[in-house]
Amino acid sequence: MELKALFTIIISTVFINNYVLSQLLGLCPFCGVSKKISSAIGMGFAVIFVMTMASFITYLVYKYLLIPYEIVYLRTLTFILIIASLVQLVEMIIEKFSPPLYQALGIFLPLITTNCAILGVTVLNIESGFVTAEFGLVKTVVQGLGAGIGFLLALLLMAGIRERLELADVPENLKGLPITFVVAGLLALAFLGFAGMKI
Amino acid sequence: MKIFELIKNGIWHRNPVLIIGIGLCPTLAVTTSVSNALWMTVAAMFVLVGSNILVSSIKRIVPPHIRIPIFITIIASFVIIVELLLKAYQPEVDKALGIFIPLIVVNCIILGRAEEFAYKNSILDSLFDGIGMGLGLGFALTLLAFVREILGANKLFGYTFIPGMEPSLMMIMAPGAFFTLAFILWAMNAIKSKQKK
Lengths: 199, 197
Hints:
Number of domains of chain B: 1
Number of strands of chain B: 2
Shape of chain B: globular
Number of helices of chain A: 9
Structural class of chain B: mainly alpha
Strand content of chain B: under 5%
Distance between the termini of chain B: 29 Å
Radius of gyration of chain A: 18 Å
Largest sheet of chain A: none
Mean pLDDT of chain A: 86
Strand order of the largest sheet of chain B: 1-2
Number of domains of chain A: 1
Number of helices of chain B: 9
Low-confidence stretches of chain A: none
Oligomer: heterodimer
Distance between the termini of chain A: 17 Å
Helix content of chain A: over 70%
Low-confidence stretches of chain B: none
Number of strands of chain A: 0
Strand content of chain A: under 5%
């Protein structure tokens, strides 16, 4: 197991295959929570945490529960239930042990269950063949972490631009969602540049 | 007449994607070709109609405080049915849509309609609401896919559209999806503000 492989996974999930800007996952929170930088940071860290945890748990469940009992077709159902209960658990733990953090992240946690980037990561972890790979668990967790960081990056960039846009003179009909998508398109165009990177 | 109204609402007045702005992930990601968009519509509509009917028929015995997990389980079961059917009968479609089939589970439109409509209305109304919303999603997907397939691949249903035209690869990738949706939403806003005047 070289560190190089893990580094490749991180770079590839954060920049080359950014979950939001090149794979088009998790767009609802991307549009909904990117109005202010402070809430973007809160949402981003909540997503990083849940994605990493979800990758870890779904990997174990898939490998040691679904495969041995030959119920692989229940993957979607199992994963969504794991994510939903994980989010609930995280919410309760944070509320108990760190009220300030809960106040910062609290409202974002319920939103995370229906964030398709999370389910997307867990499904992609399985489809990229990590289950049979050497050190699959480590790779899975790193991929989850990278996906989360990529999401935070995209959300932060977007929030920064949208805060500036508040002051800009946008045509009446372009206000709201349309201008957000134009900005997202330009960001995606910039991220397309990473596609040429060979590592 | 109510049936008509429900379907019209889904397609135009309360179009889930174009007016309310939910369910965006599959909308942008699978609209690289019209046939992908249509298959996605079929899959999502099956889940939508199925979950609407089932939720509406058990609405009296579902305890209110655990309804969301129950809805998600119902939706996930229908998604598994679609997944297995597509794998068995349309393996190419399954490959083209990839992870966006399992991701129908977290499509906000479906959970939204279960919670907002099916949980409060009769089975028949829920059925037509599901059809209307499905058609609305289909309308948005097809519109987007139409523009993107012609500009991005110079093709329509896999056939060459204008011989000799150099397609712009960007339109078939992520930026093209964002730009196309931005312009469609802009046009929708323009139509709406003109109607108001």
